[in-house]
């Protein structure tokens, strides 16, 4: 199977260059940009002094980055001198400087006598003549470093400078200001959000903020025994992007049913408690007690509520904790400087006292009912129906505000405290539906297992089956997902319209992702059942059901009916007719959840009808209805289609933003299929831009473990990405193999929607290698399947393909039909490609003036889209028509980044990729990727041209 061509190349194993930065960047998850900045500061080839201060709160990874720099420097044969500040003791004058220079004190003999004496006096146990002046000592250190740098570069690292003695730091600041033409780099770290007041303001600062959601999730995944499901989400929220908190909370949660927030065994948090025991123990008892209340409070609780529960009347109780750097108070809220401090402050007390604190917080004056419910739940031990009811009410309020995470969590806890089995099953079903909206499959799976042990209600089983099948689909298990849904429907078909439509919609979504013919066959029966259920209800579901409120109402059900109908067969069911009904004015406005459902359904119909601009607008509106931060909700099912649409209409920057958002959420919630789809689209977009990836794509664990046979839409996107990448690399044979695999031997499409829309790309690859007849047979099958009324876009694509591969037709006739329709402007890249191929045809028939008109239009589109490979092809054709090539001017060279200019000059001087990589500390693969992107910008295609270009300057 052709998609394994790419994987096989990676499996063959290209080793990572030991001089490169990739292994180090991978070892510091989420800090790749910071690592790159630090390692560039070690580049002393030009003899420029380098100094940098890494600034961040405790646990943000400052010391780890400093170690990375030191280890890298040592591999580069750089002398590393290090010092560490110690906050537990009062440092003596020049003790840090002594610690830093201790390994090289033997080199003092090379210094002038007065400088040697100054250093020895400063480092002596009891200087007789007093301490030397800062300037004299700084001059001595400067001379010493200059002497050492003659043998090899030198790196000085000082960790936690806020705990170092001031005298040493003033000497080092004196030195950093005066380092000239010496291979010396100085790296400092400091704790806090701002440098200490005595640090020079001209010292460059690199601030380390919280990790992104994606990086935090990847870091958590790297920990042994990391929690899954809701416990995973709780941990990530509590860690707040602090790397140390992610690691330690994961360690504390190992083997536990609950994360190390509230309710966990204190023994699991003993390591965290020990980290902060000294700092917390130094506080007055009343401040320690106040921190317990603050730690037990919810992040949404304001300071007034905490102080009311505490019985405090002014802020005096918090002063010592603020001075110790444990908390901050601002805008009526209290925040811990480090998430681990909250954990330590809470778990250092006995369970009975923690329980009383939660009761006090629940009873505090002015406490919000939803938060009161959470505190009552934290204080409860066994089933309490009053607590369960309060949590269920909190879940309802959270759902109304769009916070599906809080709603699912509250219902899960409500089920835990339910006294009756039926109530427990009902609340678990509600938690399943809400967790499905969160888009976390592992949480859904855990809830489903508990639900099936207590449920006896057939209608609830259908609700749960929708959630579980959706979760399985997001995890890429399409056959298991569809079989579960169909089995439940056949055994206990739902009676309510909303549940019936939900089941039909989920089944349609699974069918689209799997692409399996057997999954499309039952869809008409599912839809007919849902329509009959709606007709049987008075006023067409005017009475809201207990679940799927977002599907209630005739307008919403009509949109779902249209979306399912088009999903069954977009050609036969008539997407354009459905769109006219869906875009008609509503009789009354819809609330947030129902509006989101209708928007997504309308966007889905528009996508299949190739109404791309309308589709993009509906997806944009749906994206604006955000719920819980970091969750995708129902959009997890539609992100790939949204990116497809944005790419096709030339809004590539928006497509990149959606990909970034989606991959971040996919990492947090482990959405396997979503991440695979978006990775394929990311590679596609890079290929369309004319870029190549430094690493071979589609070699991650997902691609090795997922069955692409039951995820055909994902496989289709991957094949197209591989084909386009091969086209950019000039490998026509491989491009054709990948794009040909979008269709079976008999011409039937791998994916009924995606495959036909790659027909012109397949035709272009076929023409390049002389396989026109094979592509023409596939084109004929595509034309037949599109029916008598194909969409405008498909009509244009088929004319373009016919002009390239249909040997019995007039190519110019088809080229003109592919270009003459003004609607083609909606898909700028596809039209520009048709113009390019038409220009090539014109040139070969000695009609250069007409070809130039087409090529000029291609260049305009390529510039607007930043499609560099397309632009380079058009410029090449222009030269072939007799247009003189404009010399690569200084402006064109200025378009390159500083690193690209470095690489270009070294390549022009005859250095190989590996030699360039060794000089710039990059892998040869990364160097090659940079050069490939440089050539189109300079209007060249080889190293010989690069040498001629730069040597002429």
What can you tell me about this protein's structure?
With 953 residues, the chain is mostly helical. 62% of the residues lie in helices and 4% in strands. The chain is built from 49 helices and seven strands. It has a five-stranded parallel β-sheet, sandwiched between helices. It has a two-stranded antiparallel sheet with strand order 6-7. Helix 25 runs antiparallel to helix 27 and helix 25 packs parallel to helix 28. It starts with a helix and ends with a helix.
Poorly predicted runs are 1-26, 259-264, 886-890
Number of helices: 49
Mean pLDDT: 86
User: Which sheet architecture does the biggest sheet show?
Assistant: 5 strands, parallel
CA-to-CA gap between the ends? 49 Å
Shape: flat
What is the strand arrangement across the widest sheet?
2-3-4-1-5
| Counted beta strands | 7
> Strand share of the residues?
under 5%
Whole-angstrom Rg: 33 Å
User: Helix/strand-derived class?
Assistant: mainly alpha
**Residue share in helix:** 55-70%
Question: Outline of this structure?
Answer:
The chain has 953 residues and is mainly alpha-helical. Helix content is 62%, strand content 4%.
Record the SSE blueprint:
Blueprint (H helix, E strand, L loop, with lengths): L3 H8 L10 H6 L4 H10 L8 E7 L5 H14 L3 E6 L10 H7 L11 H11 L10 H16 L4 E6 L6 H13 L5 E8 L13 E3 L5 H9 L7 H11 L3 H11 L16 H12 L3 H12 L6 H8 L8 H5 L3 E4 L2 E4 L2 H9 L3 H13 L5 H11 L5 H16 L3 H13 L4 H18 L2 H14 L3 H17 L3 H14 L5 H18 L2 H4 L2 H14 L17 H15 L6 H8 L9 H17 L3 H13 L14 H10 L3 H18 L2 H18 L11 H5 L6 H17 L3 H9 L18 H11 L2 H15 L5 H14 L5 H10 L7 H17 L3 H18 L2 H13 L9 H5 L3 H11 L4 H8 L3 H15 L4 H9 L2
Parallel strand pairs: 1-4, 1-5, 2-3, 3-4
Antiparallel strand pairs: 6-7
């Amino acid at each position: 199977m052709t998609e394994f061509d790419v994987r096989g190349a990676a499996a063959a194993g290209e080793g990572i260059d030991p001089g490169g930065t990739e292994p180090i960047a991978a070892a510091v998850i989420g800090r790749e940009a910071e690592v790159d900045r630090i390692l560039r500061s070690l580049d002393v080839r030009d003899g420029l002094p380098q100094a940098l201060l890494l600034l961040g709160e405790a646990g943000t990874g400052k010391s780890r980055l400093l170690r990375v720099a030191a280890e890298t420097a040592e591999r580069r044969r750089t002398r590393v001198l290090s010092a560490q500040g110690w906050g537990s003791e009062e440092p003596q004058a020049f003790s840090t400087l002594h610690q830093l220079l201790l390994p090289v004190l033997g080199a003092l003999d090379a210094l002038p006598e007065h400088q040697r004496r100054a250093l020895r006096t400063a480092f002596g146990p009891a200087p007789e003549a007093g301490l030397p002046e800062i300037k004299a000592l700084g001059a001595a250190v400067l001379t010493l470093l200059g002497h050492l740098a003659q043998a090899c570069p030198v790196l000085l690292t000082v960790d936690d400078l806020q705990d170092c003695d001031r005298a040493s730091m003033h000497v080092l600041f004196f030195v950093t200001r005066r380092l000239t033409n010496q291979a010396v780099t100085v790296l400092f770290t400091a704790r806090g959000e701002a440098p200490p007041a005595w640090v020079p303001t001209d010292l460059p600062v690199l601030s380390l903020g919280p990790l992104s959601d994606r990086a935090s999730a990847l870091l958590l995944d790297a920990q042994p025994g990391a929690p899954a499901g809701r416990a995973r989400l709780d941990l990530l929220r509590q860690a707040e992007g602090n790397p140390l908190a992610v690691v330690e909370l994961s360690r504390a949660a190992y083997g536990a049913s609950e994360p190390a927030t509230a309710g966990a065994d204190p023994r699991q948090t003993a390591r965290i408690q020990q980290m902060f025991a000294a700092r917390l123990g130094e506080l007055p008892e009343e401040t320690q007690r106040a921190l317990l209340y603050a730690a037990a409070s919810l992040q949404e609780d304001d300071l007034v509520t905490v102080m009311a529960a505490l019985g405090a009347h002014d802020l005096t109780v918090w002063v010592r904790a603020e001075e110790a750097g444990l908390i901050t108070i601002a805008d009526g809220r209290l925040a811990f400087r480090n998430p681990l401090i909250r954990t330590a402050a809470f778990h250092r007390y006995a369970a009975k006292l923690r329980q009383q604190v939660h009761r006090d917080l629940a009873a505090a004056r002015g406490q919000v009912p939803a938060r009161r419910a959470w505190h009552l739940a934290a204080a409860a031990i066994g089933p309490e129906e009053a607590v369960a009811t309060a949590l269920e009410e909190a879940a309802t309020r959270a759902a109304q505000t769009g916070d599906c995470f809080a709603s699912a969590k509250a219902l899960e806890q409500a089920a835990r405290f339910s006294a009756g089995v039926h109530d427990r099953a009902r609340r678990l079903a509600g938690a399943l539906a809400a967790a499905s909206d969160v888009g976390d499959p592992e949480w859904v799976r855990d809830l489903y297992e508990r639900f099936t042990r207590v449920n006896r209600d057939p209608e609830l089983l259908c609700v749960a089956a929708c959630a579980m099948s959706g979760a399985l689909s997001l995890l890429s298990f399409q056959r298991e997902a569809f079989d579960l849904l169909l089995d439940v429907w056949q055994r206990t078909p739902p009676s309510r319209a909303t549940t019936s439509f939900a089941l039909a919609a989920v089944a349609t979504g699974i069918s689209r992702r799997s692409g399996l013919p057997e999954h499309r066959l039952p869809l008409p029966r599912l839809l007919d059942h849902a329509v009959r259920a709606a007709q049987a209800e008075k006023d067409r579901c005017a009475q809201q059901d207990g679940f799927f409120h977002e599907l209630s109402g005739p307008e919403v059900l009509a949109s779902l009916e249209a979306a399912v109908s088009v999903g069954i067969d977009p050609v036969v069911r008539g997407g354009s007719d459905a769109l006219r009904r869906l875009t008609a004015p509503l009789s009354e406005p819809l609330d947030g959840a129902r509006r989101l459902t209708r928007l997504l359904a309308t966007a889905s119909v528009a996508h299949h009808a190739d109404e791309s601009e309308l589709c993009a607008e509906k997806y944009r509106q749906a994206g604006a209805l955000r719920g819980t931060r970091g969750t995708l909700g129902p959009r997890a099912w539609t992100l790939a289609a949204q990116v497809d649409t944005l790419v096709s209409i030339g809004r590539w920057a928006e497509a990149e933003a959606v990909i970034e958002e989606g991959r971040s959420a996919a990492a947090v919630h482990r959405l396997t299929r979503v991440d695979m789809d978006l990775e394929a689209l990311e590679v596609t977009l890079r290929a369309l831009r004319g870029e190549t990836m430094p690493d071979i794509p589609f070699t991650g664990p997902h691609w090795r473990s997922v069955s692409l046979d039951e995820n055909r839409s994902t496989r289709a996107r991957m094949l197209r990405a591989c084909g386009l990448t091969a086209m950019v690399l000039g490998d026509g044979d491989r491009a054709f193999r990948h794009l040909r695999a979008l269709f079976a031997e008999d011409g039937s499409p791998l994916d009924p929607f995606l495959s036909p829309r790659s027909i012109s790309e397949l035709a272009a690859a076929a023409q390049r290698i002389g396989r026109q007849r094979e592509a023409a047979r596939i084109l004929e099958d595509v034309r037949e399947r599109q029916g008598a009324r194909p969409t405008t876009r498909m009509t244009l694509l088929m004319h373009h393909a016919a002009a390239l591969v249909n040997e019995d037709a007039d190519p110019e006739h088809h080229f003109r039909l592919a270009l003459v329709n003004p609607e083609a402007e909606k898909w700028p890249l596809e039209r520009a490609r048709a113009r390019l191929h038409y220009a090539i045809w014109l040139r070969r028939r000695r009609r250069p003036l007409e070809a130039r008109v087409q090529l000029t239009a291609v260049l305009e589109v390529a510039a607007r889209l930043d499609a560099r490979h397309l632009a380079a092809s058009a410029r090449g054709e222009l030269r072939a028509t007799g247009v003189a090539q404009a010399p690569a001017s200084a402006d064109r060279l200025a378009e390159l980044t500083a690193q690209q200019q470095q690489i270009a000059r070294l390549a022009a001087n005859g250095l190989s990729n590996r030699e360039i990589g060794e000089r710039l500390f990059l892998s040869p693969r990364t160097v090659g990727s940079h050069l490939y992107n440089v050539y189109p910008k300079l209007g060249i295609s080889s190293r010989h041209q690069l040498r001629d270009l730069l040597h002429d300057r």
